[in-house]
Amino acid sequence: MTRRPGGPRRRSITRAFERIAPPVRVALGALTLTAGVALAFTDLDLFAFTRIAGIALAALGLGLIALEAGASASAAPRERRGPWRWLAPGALIAVGAGIAIRSDIGAPALAALIGLGLMVHGVLSAVQSFRTHESRRLAGLLSAGASIIIGFVSLTWPVLTLDFIRIGTAVWLAFVGLRLLFESAIRRWARRSGITWSPRLRVRHTLAAGGALALAVLLAMGSGWLLRSDKRPAPGNFYAAPANLPGEPGKLLRSEPLTEGVPQGARAWRILYTSTSGDGSPTLASGTVLAPLHPAAGDAPLLSIAHGTTGVSRPCAPSLSSSPFADGASTSLTSMVVQHGWVGVTSDYAGLGTEGQEAYLVGQDEARNVLDASRAARELGELQLSHRTVVWGHSQGGHGALWTAKIAAEYAPELTVVATAAMAPASDLYGLAELDKKDAAGKVISSYIAASWDTHYPELNLLAHLTPGSAPGVDRISQLCFTDRDAIAALLRGTQIPNQVFPDKLLSGELGALLRENSPEGPFDAPLLVAQGLADPLVRPQLQRGWVGDQCAAGVALDYRTYPGLGHMELVGPKSPLTPQLVQWTLDRWNGKQAPNNCASLPAG
Q: Which residue ranges does UniProt annotate as crossing the membrane (predicted)?
């Protein structure tokens, strides 16, 4: 006997699902919402985040199966859908279970799996929407679109920050959880009140789905804006090596006027000159010269500047920037040039602008480039420069300035270093790598070191010995400059590297030895000023204080100044108390005044 549609069997199934589906729907909605909130507001490590995300996705898939089963049981025969309806929730269950089980997959793989799962679910949900009642079609398509866009963001940017992945997934999970709870409450109220699923309720449902889609679009646009790099010009013919490169370092090969970014009351040039690489062979470097518009008669005082971190790829040369004189203590530099008649010479460092790979934080290479830039500037026909010089540097440039003072007498005896000012210098490279290894900025610095030192110290084979999951982030960061918008993108990509870039065994081995070898140690032949902001999150005050104490104990005379409340960049900002002090300290050293030495009573911090 054929059972009639809508007969006793079907009615019993319907009643069963009517009893089971609402509690399941509420429980899964609450679980999904809780998971979204936990991901958004709890400070989780990668493994905990992975497990929660995986369990939530799998539970959501089970919930969708329960909802689909309940809807199918209560539907008329002609409205029942085929087995394809299980594909979307099945994909979520499979991906979620895989993520939860393999919580050690790392951030890039996690982003790819989550992104793929969301995209597949969104596509299948979109297809399913066309088979549902017209009243639910638009809301289903909007929800599917939100899922696809969030998945696309995660899949397209597999090395986005873990915070971005967490928040994006959290928003999506929270939305789905709220949707499940909202539908359960509305349906229960409507059933008790004898009200059918009215157009007004459908409008609310559609508005909620539209809001999720709008949020997903904003998320995608925001990530694209944050990660968009600067449009920096590629080095042109000016930076090309001549057919026969002179072997003598410090020879001026080319110069051309600079007009963009030049302070009022000054004039500037871009220069190309010879220098010496780490193995002693000739190399090529570029740089800039900033001089007063109307110089005084006689030899102008010379300021040799080592610039701070701008990146390690060729387009990151300061001479290629639209603001070539904005690095470090730019306000003090403008004052020295425009008001006091000095000439400032800044090396790009070999490999920035010119061909090759910059020797990032390799002390001797930086110092040779700085000294050779000053040699080359003295060959400019438009200027008459003193053989005496004061050296400045901030951050990486502070490291370079200390090394310049250390080797100047031996490498460039025709130049006399009168004094050296190092602002927040990277003085202890090993300590810096150890303290900052888990911070976003520290990971950016480590990425630059990995890319640079893999070339300059090939015996380390650094890029082959990074922590798991670090290589994609290191590769992308190494192509970004650390100025303007690129700095934001580099820091964001630094935060997405799941672990420290260099494993501890590498830091305690050959890499650590080379970091110590490239940390500047006295004696320094000229008076030394070291300035440090006490709120510096990158070059930590306690690290600087330890290095200064070691130098004082070794007999180095120096003037150590600390600035409460100032961070890494604020230390050399226009409003910093160091700015006028640096100018006056430099003028005093040039005029032969006795240099302060506070080694006997170093400031705290």
A: 20-42, 48-71, 83-101, 107-127, 139-158, 164-182, 203-227
